[in-house]
Design a protein that fits this description.
Length: about 400
């Protein structure tokens, strides 16, 4: 006889109990996690806003400047060369000394030159005596006219020889051709110098000049007599005043520029030839101009624009759920109001003068409107932004929206 299977009446009941407990646990987990999901979405929206820094457009005084760079040059720069051969016997000046035109700088051995002058002088006396005798003979009609003319020409020639010998003697005294400062000494005592050898360099540093190569579009902007300011890289914190001495009458066809020569007079002798200077010429000024930082200007496709910060359309508030006890219904709280949000708006503007880090806005913006200065490369028209260093409530009070007149 086969064994008879006995059914367990409690096994279906245990299964139903396990399924019910699992369903209750899932409902409890769902109720507990339901309040966290909306918060996560809100954080994702906040993180999507681009952080930016802004500045307000305001009325200020702005000066129109032309800026350029140039190297300082001396007006007078003379190389003193030897005009005769000789040994250096004396050096009377050193580098850095100020000398006057005609001042003796050095002396060469002049024995040979003096001997030559003595010989020429003796011959001149002999020639002069012969001429005087011929002159008397012609007066008495006992000397032929041809002999008189020969003696006369010999006298004139010998006088020229004496003058040449005196000139050679003067060349043994090295003198300054211009007034200025001794910039370089190229000889030492006892040196044998040759004709045309460089001995000294003299630089006239009053005034100093700097030549600007200015684009031809500014030809009507710069004028002779305008004041200029120069800053030198080697002299931090110092500014030197000068004037435009002259404007070149022609434009270089190859570079499209013209030369503007500026002069600087420095009684302290702080400026030196060869220094690199940054020159600014102020040619106009507006006392009530609307300006923004230069970093706010976007140049693209030949147009200038800025990104302003404007209020975004309000978003619907999401209801916040509260957790309930097991077995109780979940009650909805009153919806919290959404904080104001802001977006970047591209605005075409017309720029004017630029001074330092400020740019004049002639059209396209109103006083008080805020423009993005840092972070503008990361935004586009309509991008949601977060203003750093300011609360949304404070930003809401700034002028936004509306096309500027």
């Amino acid at each position: 006889m086969l064994p008879t299977r006995v059914s367990n009446p409690f096994r279906p009941i245990d299964r139903r109990l396990r399924l019910g407990a699992l369903a209750a646990a899932m409902a409890l987990l769902t109720a507990c996690g339901g309040g966290g999901a909306p918060g996560k979405d809100a954080n994702s929206t906040a993180q999507a806003a681009i952080p930016v820094e802004v500045a307000s457009a305001s009325h200020q005084s702005v000066t129109a400047n032309y800026s350029g760079t140039a190297t300082l040059e001396a007006v007078g720069d003379a190389q003193v060369v030897a005009k005769t051969t000789g040994i250096v016997l004396k050096i009377l000046v050193e580098e850095g000394m100020h000398v006057q035109k005609g001042q003796v700088l050095a002396m060469l051995d002049d024995d040979a030159a003096r001997n030559k002058l003595a010989q020429a002088t003796g011959t001149l006396k002999k020639t002069q005596a012969a001429y005087d005798k011929s002159e008397k003979g012609v007066a008495l009609k006992i000397t032929p006219r041809a002999d008189y003319d020969r003696d006369k020409y010999d006298l004139e020639t010998q006088k020229a020889v004496v003058d040449g010998a005196q000139l050679d003697l003067s060349y043994t005294r090295i003198v300054a051709p211009i007034s200025g400062v001794v910039a370089k000494r190229s000889i030492k005592l006892g040196n044998l110098v040759q004709t045309n050898q460089n001995l000294f360099q003299i630089v006239d540093m009053d005034p100093l000049q700097a030549v600007l190569n200015v684009p031809e579009r500014d030809l009507d902007t710069l004028k002779p007599g305008q004041s200029v300011q120069m800053r030198v890289d080697a002299l931090t914190g110092k500014s030197f005043e000068g004037t435009i001495a002259r404007i070149a009458p022609v434009v270089d066809a190859a570079s499209g520029t013209f030369r503007a020569t500026c002069e600087f007079r420095d009684s302290t002798r702080t400026l030196k030839p060869g220094m690199f200077g940054r020159i600014e010429v102020a040619y106009d000024q507006r006392h009530d101009a609307l300006v923004v930082p230069r970093s706010a200007i976007v140049e693209e496709d030949g147009e200038s624009s800025v990104f302003t910060v404007e209020s975004a359309p309000p978003k619907p508030a999401a209801p916040a759920a509260t957790k309930g006890k097991p077995g109780e219904a979940v009650a909805a709280e009153q919806a919290k109001p959404a904080l104001p949000s802001f977006v970047a708006k591209r605005r075409l503007v017309k720029t004017g003068y630029a001074e330092g880090d400020r740019v004049e806005i002639r059209d396209g913006l109103k006083d008080g409107e805020r423009v993005i200065t840092i972070g503008r490369n990361a935004v586009r028209d309509g991008t949601e932004v977060q203003v750093l260093g300011d609360t949304p409530q404070a930003l809401a009070g700034a002028p936004t929206g509306g096309k500027a007149s």
